[in-house]
## 1
Amino acid sequence: MSSGSDDKPGLLGCRLRAARETAFVGREEEVAVFNAALYGGGCSVLYVHGPGGIGKSALLRRFAHEAAVAGRPVSMVDGRMLEPAASEAEPVLRDADAVLLVDDFERIQGLEGWLRERFLPRVPVGALVVIAGRNPPDMRWQADPGWAGALEVLPLRDLRAGDARTLLDSCGVPAESREPLLAFAGGHPLALLLGAAVAVKDGGAGGRWRPNQDVVATLLDELVGESPSAAHRRALEICAHAYMTTEDLLRAVLPEEAGTLFRWLRRLPFVESSSRGLFPHDVVRGVLEADLRWRDPEGYAVMHDRIHAHLAERVRTASDADVPGAVAALLHLHRDSGAPADFRGCHDEDEFQEEVLREEDIATLLRVVTAAEGAASAACAAFWAERQPEAFRLYRRAETGEPVAFSAWLRLAELDEEELAADPVVAMAWAHARATTPLRAGEHLAVSRVWALPPYRGNSPVMEVIQWRVIGNCLRSERLAWSYIEIRHPNQAWVERLRRHYGMRDISGQPQLGEVFAHDWRAVPAQAWLERMSRLLVAGPAARPGAATAKLAVLSQAEFAEAVRKALRQLSRPDALAVSPLTRTRLIAERAGQNPATALGDLLRQAIDDLRADPRSVKFHRALSATFLRGAPTQELAAEGLGLPFTTYRRHLTAGVERVCADLWHRELYGTGVPVHLRRTALPP
């Protein structure tokens, strides 16, 4: 369709054009590239590509306006109308001043080879052709040396933040609705315009603005369209929910066709790739999430649980260098349940580099900590760097190599007077643990220390990477009793997140030390901690008040053993087992879904039965079975039934009870596995 036919004053087309020009914002760089080509200083072919709704058609209309102002004849071809395309394109073959604009090129993508090899070489030098479509150009354009100076490729991105605000202003969006609308739409023009229409119509909604289902459905049609199959749609929904999508993630959720679906995803115009996998445009991510949660909440929960389980396992098994990225992927699943709203990991993943501390970095450590916190903090950092150099990580700006922060994860099982005197934060943590629930044999506590240069404190990308490292340490540490996180220059949003979302207690008592947050990982283990956050996301904010995870009992070894002895004597009484402190221990928490009293009874019976696996323990098994499983009325009758002298029976029974106590205590500390009496360790006589 040729430009100019509907521009006469008095026609509706003139009015439409004026309104569109008023709503056009930004794109200064793209217009500058077009004008350079228009006035003979640039390329002959300009290829614009970007996802649906990103503003390609609006940009072509601006190009048409710029060409008309320059006095050059303009022709426009719409890929949705194939029949008139040839005649509309012919002027550019005859006139060196002609400008040809081709929109919706993805509809006629099959003509790309013909266009490149047959049509465009016939265009006179001086003429200008602009192609706009969702898909990037075939690599053969850029691989051909002949096109090196004649073709310019322009990926069209979101509007900048200032331009997005200007667009909302031009639409008359109430001030109180702008922030939630921008949080949803970002800089995506179509999403902004559709959201603006809803916000203007429902001006009283204020900060509660949400995209309604009409907006979501329209964006899905325009941005995503129809999927080839139900499996393809599920792959899209997984890609929208996950931080980054890899083929192994797809395989964990959709075992069949994972490879085929991954290859399909990576070719979609609204899906981008990074070193960690695929991720969709933010608006596509948002509308796919909103649609699935509304349309199929049960399916959404199932998908979330599968992705969550896969990513939680990745955190546990990742190499040390991959821990921050693995934690970022896991925490991204919690972004709508109180996690950071400005989660930026997808796009800034390589902005900062994490390194282990080397001996030659000690001088840098002292310089950075002195600049960040002063000489006293530098002395403290130097003290720990000498004692636990493996605890330290250095963070550099990737672009310049500039060191900007250090972190330390101090593992402490015992402290001497010198260590307590050297670090007041460690001394506070140690005193708190001793006064609350002290460490048990083999356990340790950890103290996280962070030193960052002033420009990088608070809610900064490097602090986010450090946060991922700290959470990874918590989730991966064996025998971790307490963790303590000091925030010297607290950002209020981060403080609230630690307190409300991550369930950590503020134990700060000395203002000069900043805020110190503690968590007892025996009372709320890593798995329960993750499940709580997962439930908050799936159930939504309404479930938050009742979503607190019940804390486990943290018993000393003596208290634990006494509870086991009592539970063995009450094994035939479920009512008595129900009130045992053992029902609130890790042992029973690991048996999720069972009635606690039933789970405890099953556990005790299994512990007795396990003794049969070791020939040296068979006599203990017989004594315990006769006493607690078969329920002999008296110990004398139990001994008589076994054909044993009473003193021998009592010795076997006592040793068997001690063996069960040791086995269960080992499982309480280390988790389920091979009973301790079957390990290659010293056995009691």
## 2
Amino acid sequence: MQEKGTISIHTENIFPIIKKFLYSDHEIFLRELVSNAVDATQKIKRLAQLGQYGGELGDIRVEVAFDKDKKTITISDRGLGMTADDVKKYINQIAFSGATEFMEKFKDSKDANEIIGKFGLGFYSAFMVADKVEIQTLSYQNGAEAVQWTCDGSTEFEIAKGSRKDRGTDVILYLNADSEEFLDKWKLQGILDKYCKFLPVPIKFGTKTESQEDGTDDKGEKKWKSVEVDNIINTTSPIWTKSPSDLKDEDYLAFYKELYPFGEDPLFWIHLNVDYPFNLTGVLYFPKVKNDFDFQKNKIKLFSRQVFITDEVKDIVPEFLMLLHGVIDSPDIPLNVSRSFLQADSNVKKINTYITKKVADKLGELFKKDRKVYEGKWNDIGLFVKYGMVSEDKFAEKAKDFALLKNTKGEFFTLSEYREKVKPFQTDKSEQLVYLYANDVAKQDAFIQSANKKDYDVLVMDSPIDNHFIQHLEMKEEKTSLKRVDADVAEKLIEKDASYANLLNEEQSKQVKEIFEKAIDNKAYSISIEGLSPEEMPVTVTMDEFMRRMKEMAQMGGGMSFYGSMPDNYKVAINGNHPVIDKILKAADEAEQSKLAKQSFDLALLAQGLLTGKDLTEFVKRSVGMI
């Protein structure tokens, strides 16, 4: 049998496009060829189940091998194999997908979707790395003859009698000079681990050494020996292909360790399993993230029928869940022709919505089932919930029942519970409810204590998302505003009708203001004399809530760059009712007045963490001298 011909294509110079541009990463060739081999194996299994193949299946693993001397990589299977006509049909006609035809023919078979191939272009990825490709194949059909197909990367091919003795196909790549990096055991092992780790047919890649039990010694202790065994690189039935009812917690944790060997155990997980209106399986894990807001986009892996596609899943998984770990597998997710990138499609949006709902349902279930356990995990999962509420209205609607607010005493409240708790004491004179919060409890302790003395409660808002979450609460909670506990003196955080009168007369107030202006000598500080409780600090330094918020948003890239470039400005509240102010007025001379005023001001700066460098050193020296 000898025949020569021309590959049937409809676009001139398509090979350079395939070889250089179709696949962005050349290592994809191995994924495509192994997937094709698995595809052919799945087909023969299906035909056997349908009674259309009566022969012995035998060993149906796929094998990958390489030869450094010959500079070849070979992918072998014992699948359907091909006749000469099949080769002409499926190999010589670019973009004719054998899997598509097969699935159409056997579409009523419930497992037809297991067939992987889709575009009919995967085979030609071989020419990205090979100068010549050879196929040796023998069809499963009775009386079939072995076929050899060779092509040097041009549109010329040759078909001749092949040498294959048993059913299946060998694809042999003769690597080009630029691709000899792939003639390395560990390089190939890494690619197989990345793309083929969960394919449904065993993939053999050489051998490996294992220790096996070898009887006992004279003392009755076990002996071990090293043996060479086949190196099967994949798990053919990963847990996402199984029913949740067949799995235990240990199975989910073991799979997590397989995916992330060095990660801490996850908090909990969600098993996805839906077949209408789209097919989707997978397992998503909630990791321990604390306040780490560094999004890593390589944590959720996307598969299509157990073939790894990508770890860029931002369109499928809502952005607020990008910190989740795990896998998603769906044959209904639209991929571009190289199976490397997602394409816009209604199914993607439906899957995104479904995952959002499943996560919300799971969190709600955990909250209702055991609130104490849920509260114990809040420091980890709060980031997900808050970010979800800020970015997804539908999630926010569900999450309002299980989102928690934590105060400085370590108590947890739902949104409705907290509203009822603080309403009696924290409603201002215009009937506006004011939530107070701290973003650094240790640093703001003096302000927290001042607020607590007035029976005010203070929330802890110290996660990276809280700036946005605060704005979300102000938008969604009726007649509610939030103020940081150090945004003003305690008397002014929540404006009431009743307030302390300033005991200083107008002349004394003017004198005190002039003393502090000279002592501070910095126009960034705006000074005012206030009538406050004598128990409050003599001097308090604060930044306006609005201005501070805008500057923090600018630092996070929130589109407030104008505010970010503005210099910091602070309010200095002088407590006219504090004994220290009276002491300053009665000081012997201006020098003593200035020293006492500067000391009081530096104490206020110290309370805010604003006293640093030379000013801090001078404060310490001055304090020692005043003892």
